[in-house]
Amino acid sequence: MKQRVLVFSPHPDDDLIGCGGSIAKHIGQGDLVTVVYMTSGEAGSLHYSKSDLARIREAEAAKAAAVLGLTDLIFFQRPDGYLNYNRENLIPIINLIREKQPNLVYLPHKNDLHKDHIRTYELVMEACTRASGPWFPECEGQPWSVDIILGYEVWTPLSEVSYIEDITSFMDLKVEALKQHKSQIQDIRYDEAIRGLNRYRGIMSGKGEYCECFQVIKINQFFHLEGRDDHNT
């Protein structure tokens, strides 16, 4: 049965760093994946104006998505570095959850120490709660409850890991996609950093050569991860 997957990324490239291998695996098995970029990452370099960098980074995200075979990208275009928990940002997320009706949501884990990542976590978690109930008539669509919510690691590695995904077969594809974000890796080698972290996770967990690790935030009691051969806990 196909899953409907919704990935929330504070900036273009966070999705790949945190769960790019899992995204590739979902696409490979026919799941429907949508990636939502809260900002366009226009504060991510001193080499360009903000308006130019926003265009560059959205284009880089599209190129990276093409590498993975991902076709559904949404850019909220909120101010990079100034993402706020407010009505303006919350309602579109609620509407999107009700529209897409995801079974699985990925987002930055709750202790990822970057302000935009923290705000993304807070916004998406509250939106998942509000989307599930018959409240807030200013929002669109019918109530929808997400079955599974997983927190991925970007800036701050998880101190406690509760779910491990073997991405060995997709590691090279993940790095190739991340390398499309040339405006970012010219200053900070995120591609090398994440290959190292995923290798560390694989070695220390014994679950694969390369692994992505997650914080389990919610699992519907009727869903069993161990029921899928490609998952490890």
Polypeptide structure, described:
- With 233 residues, the chain is of the alpha/beta class.
- The protein has a single domain (4-219), classed as Rossmann fold (3-Layer(aba) Sandwich).
- It has helices at residues 14-28, 50-68, 87-100, 115-131, 171-178, 182-185, 190-205, and strands at residues 4-9, 32-39, 72-78, 104-108, 148-152, 163-166, 211-219.
- Helix 1 crosses helix 5 and helix 2 packs antiparallel against helix 5 (171-178).
Short description:
With 233 residues, this protein is α/β, with parallel strands linked by helices. It has 7 helices and 7 strands. The two termini are 21 Å apart.
Topology:
Layout lengths: L3 E6 L4 H15 L3 E8 L10 H19 L3 E7 L8 H14 L3 E5 L6 H17 L16 E5 L10 E4 L4 H8 L3 H4 L4 H16 L5 E9 L14
Parallel strand pairs: 1-2, 1-4, 2-3, 4-5
Antiparallel strand pairs: 5-7, 6-7
CATH superfamily: LmbE-like
Which descriptor suits the 3D outline? globular
Please give the CATH class: Alpha Beta
Element string (H = helix, E = strand): EHEHEHEHEEHHHE
- What is the CATH topology classification name? Rossmann fold
Q: Could you say how many structural domains there are in total?
A: 1
The whole-number mean of residue pLDDT values reads: 94
Which sheet architecture does the biggest sheet show?
7 strands, mixed
Q: What is the helix tally? A: 7
Please give the CATH architecture. Answer: 3-Layer(aba) Sandwich
Helix share of residues? 25-40%
**What structural class should be given to the helix and strand makeup?**
alpha/beta
Poorly predicted runs of 5 or more residues: 222-233
Strand content: 15-25%
